[in-house]
């Protein structure tokens, strides 16, 4: 049996971050509404001495001809030696025989697109329709793609970027201004970036909150992308306690990993629900301007398939 091998360059030509990709990820989230999806827990390997982590993820949707296994390393010291912090590959196997059908040597590109599209799905369903100001925490590839994806579903005209490395934030702001044709500025303080933003997106590997509850304003939508393991934490737990609605792409995962893991407490009485319940309108969806809506997006393997 012939195995197809696709490189990152080939995949970039085949898969782009557009509305079609957003709709594909939206459909993948909806499949989680059924009991037929087989999605085992994420296998994780930590390599602490090199600031590294490796995740292995997979899922199977009955009826599809194939399923993917993704290997996703993140080595956060790599930029210091001139290498990207993330890379990886996907293996596509036959659902009928288990034989390998394709190797997707994407170096993390497909994951980047998927993750950005997931942020767009969240904003499409939960952010105010007239959202025009965005704040992005982080200045890496995902920060850039999140803003690009957000502009597919909301009329963003201005954006602010904050990062621990101010120089990187300024470079990202200049490049995004040229790329997207909107005003993007770098902020020295997180509070400055968050003030007046309609949508706030966090894309950092922080292990202590970078977004404080006292900075938040009524009507803001928050998409938190970075906290994918137990020790990571981008949002002040009190920010979640203040929210009217908390949406997770997988409640089982986010109760164990990420923001909800840090915020579960008896005083949290707001609604907590999976994203598919919002998408399928199995809940009353009221998006008044006096509400705060955080969305937690983890890497759900179904969306990789």
TrEMBL record:
Stored InterPro entries: NAD(P)-bd_dom_sf (IPR036291), ODC_Mu_crystall (IPR003462), ODC_N (IPR023401)
Transmembrane spans: none
One GO cellular component assignment for this chain's record is: cytoplasm
Query: Which superkingdom does the taxonomy of this entry point to?
Result: Bacteria
> Metal-binding: is it a keyword of this entry?
no
**Pfam families reported for this sequence:** OCD_Mu_crystall
Give the keywords, sorted: NAD
Gene3D superfamilies registered for this protein in UniProt: NAD(P)-binding Rossmann-like Domain, ornithine cyclodeaminase, domain 1
The UniProt record lists the keyword NAD: yes
Tell me which family the UniProt entry assigns to this protein.
Belongs to the ornithine cyclodeaminase/mu-crystallin family.
Q: Would you tell me the protein name for this molecule?
A: Ectoine utilization protein EutC
């Amino acid at each position: 049996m012939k195995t197809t091998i696709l490189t990152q360059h080939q995949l970039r030509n085949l898969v782009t971050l557009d509305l079609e990709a957003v709709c594909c990820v939206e459909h993948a989230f909806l499949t989680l509404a059924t009991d037929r999806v087989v999605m085992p827990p994420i296998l994780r390997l930590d390599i602490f001495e090199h600031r590294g982590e490796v995740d292995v993820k997979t899922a199977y949707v009955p009826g599809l001809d194939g399923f993917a296994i993704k290997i996703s390393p993140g080595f956060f010291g790599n930029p210091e030696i001139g290498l990207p912090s993330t890379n990886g590959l996907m293996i596509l196997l036959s659902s009928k025989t288990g034989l390998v059908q394709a190797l997707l040597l994407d170096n993390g590109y497909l994951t980047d697109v998927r993750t950005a599209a997931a942020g767009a799905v969240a904003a499409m369903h939960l952010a105010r329709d007239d959202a025009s100001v965005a704040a992005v925490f982080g200045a890496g590839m995902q920060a850039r793609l999140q803003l690009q994806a957000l502009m597919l579903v909301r009329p963003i005209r201005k954006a602010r970027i904050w990062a621990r490395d101010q120089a990187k934030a300024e470079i990202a702001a200049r490049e995004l201004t040229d790329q997207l044709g909107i005003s993007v500025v770098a902020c020295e303080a997180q509070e400055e970036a968050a003030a007046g933003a309609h949508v706030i997106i966090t894309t950092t590997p922080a292990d202590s909150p970078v977004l404080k509850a006292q900075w938040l304003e009524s009507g803001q939508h928050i998409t938190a992308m970075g906290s994918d393991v137990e020790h990571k934490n981008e949002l002040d737990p009190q920010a979640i306690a203040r929210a009217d609605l908390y949406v997770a792409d997988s409640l089982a995962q986010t109760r164990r990993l990420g923001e909800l893991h840090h915020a579960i407490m008896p005083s949290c009485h707001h609604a907590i629900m999976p994203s598919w319940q919002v998408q399928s309108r199995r809940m009353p969806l009221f998006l008044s301007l006096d509400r705060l809506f955080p969305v937690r997006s983890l890497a759900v393997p179904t969306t990789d398939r």
